[in-house]
Specification:
Number of helices of chain A: 0
Radius of gyration of chain B: 14 Å
Structural class of chain B: mainly beta
Helix content of chain B: under 10%
Largest sheet of chain A: 6 strands, mixed
Shape of chain A: globular
Order of helices and strands of chain B: EEEEEEEEEEEEE
Strand content of chain B: over 45%
Distance between the termini of chain A: 40 Å
Oligomer: heterodimer
Shape of chain B: globular
């Protein structure tokens, strides 16, 4: 199974400021997908952003953007203009591009606290 | 369109008791997954199914069984519950993948299970 590592158990950010969450992964594949999921206190898993490994351009979704460094196997998430509603646990996940299962491998998660 | 639903939302079991968790999806998805979430470990795959009538083991299958008799339902069974199975269980579904197109996994709201 692929290993996904999130080295920051907790991060705190002031409202309206920027926070960056780190994620590294281990794989021998050249084609794959990476995701960031948000889990608020409601427990619901919400897809925030996705990145295809074959695309060099970093994905962006409104205030959320990623820094994808394929050679370094690094996939960080930047939350800009942080809002109180961004407070949640964030999971990085990896998925193979080919195969017959397409299951996700998750990191341990980073809890983000937003200070008003 | 309810998406992915899970029954029950909460359950307390005594050691040795059995139970079945039901996952249902109304999106006609081929792929379904069962994950467990434990503090500091992210989500780990228990079992998955790539179509009606098929099941396969994931990362942590011991102590669990699954069945996919109907395309829309994926059942997770605990034959003899143990305290180590205290966790939050998530079901997810996906339509799979077609070439370079990616179909995301949609998650249910989770089931919190406590085994005493």
């Amino acid at each position: 199974a692929q290993t996904v590592t999130q080295s920051q158990p907790e991060m705190s950010v002031q409202e309206a400021e920027t926070v960056t969450l780190s994620c590294t992964y281990d794989t021998s594949e050249s084609d794959y997908y990476l995701f960031w999921y948000k889990q608020p206190p409601s427990r619901q898993m919400i897809l925030v952003i996705r990145q295809e490994a074959y695309k060099q351009q970093n994905a962006t979704e409104n205030r959320f953007s990623v820094n994808f460094q394929k050679a370094a196997k690094s996939f960080s998430l930047k939350i800009s203009d942080s809002q109180l509603g961004d407070a949640a646990m964030y999971f990085c996940a990896y998925r193979r591009a080919y195969g017959d299962d397409y299951k996700l491998s998750f990191g341990a998660g980073t809890t983000v606290t937003v200070r008003a | 369109n309810a998406g992915v639903t899970q029954t029950p939302k909460f359950r307390v079991l005594k050691t040795g008791q059995s139970m079945t968790l039901l996952c249902a999806q109304d999106m006609n998805h081929e792929y379904m997954y069962w994950y467990r979430q434990d503090p500091g470990m992210g989500l780990r795959l228990i079992h998955y199914s790539v179509g009606e009538g098929t099941t396969a083991k994931g990362e942590v299958p011991d102590g669990y069984n699954v069945s996919r008799l109907k395309k829309q339902n994926f059942l997770l069974g605990l034959e003899s519950a143990a305290p180590s199975q205290t966790s939050v269980y998530f079901c997810a579904s996906s339509s799979g993948i077609d070439g370079k197109r990616l179909y995301e996994q949609y998650f249910g709201p989770g089931t919190r299970l406590t085994v005493t």
